[in-house]
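WARN retry 2 of 3 for item q-0093 after timeout on previous attempt; input resubmitted unchanged.
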Amino acid sequence: QPDFLRSLQANGDNWLTRALDENETFAWVPRAPIRIVYGDADINVSPMSSRALYDYAHPRGGAVTLHDMGATDHMATAAVSYAPTLAWFDNLTDR
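OK item q-0093 returned
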């Protein structure tokens, strides 16, 4: 519908943008501990996304920690984060 398209292009209020806002997956604060790991050379998931989640959640009381795995790509980031993440999980069970 032309009216809907105009509203969408003008960032106006419409049913679709309201539904998207209600289903936003970024603006949330985790209560359970979350370990965010990222690699600076990751082209699959931007390191900025990891930092953005931390920057949003941490000041709001989110139980998040941020861990830079260095100049690693996506697969290498996973590989170098296994041991520290396992130790982190083991520490969680001690609480």
